[in-house]
Amino acid sequence: MTLTLLDWRRRVAALYAAARTATDPEAGWRLWRDGRDELFASHPDSPLDDAARAAFSGLPFAPYDPALRFEARLEAAAAQRLEVPTATDGVVPFERIGAVTLGELGTVDVWWLDSYGGGVFVPLRDGTAGQGTYGGGRYLLDTVKGADLGGGEGRLVVDLNFAYHPSCAYDPRWSCPLAPEGNRLTAPVAAGEQLPPGGWY
After folding, report:
1. DSSP-based three-state secondary structure for 79
2. pTM of the entire predicted model
3. Lower CB density within 10 Å: C or N end of the chain?
4. CA distance 114 to 51
5. What is the pLDDT of residues 56-96, one digit of tens each?
6. Does residue 103 form part of some domain?
7. Does a structural domain hold residue 54?
8. Distance (Å, whole) CA 60 – CA 192
């Protein structure tokens, strides 16, 4: 952990805080997108290498679709432990704490990072994986890194327009937990971050 990485996390958390408090969800999403573009273009901990930064003109996103924003109730699900081996952080443990239903798209598992500090983690691999989006899937929520859109008692705001690629999509030096079976949907989710032509890596 470096102070520049701490700064990255602070800025990401501030972007999500701005999105949570925006009176219009799409306006909050635009603030978040603009902030991510700035971080990717200029921050020392951007996952883009120097060559990719030089050619960078913004992360490609599908247009905002308000029908893909859900305030979903956390539903009961059988306990399950997931231990994800990574190259940099050893084995990362997760516990399934429930599931959320995303309209007609289906249900995905909600995980708790079961190590110091903890945090909610919701990855997603949908029918666009390997075509318009990263083959390993995208992230919807990762509260240990500030990716939190809020929610009322017993609920989580899950806005598929905020789906973003993990750092390993841009540079194979990064190691990222990917979507397990309960976080895979066969339907395509035409929202969120997309792969640019040719990809970043």
Report:
1. coil
2. 0.93
3. N
4. 37
5. 999 999 999 999 999 999 999 999 999 987 766 678 899 99
6. yes
7. yes
8. 8
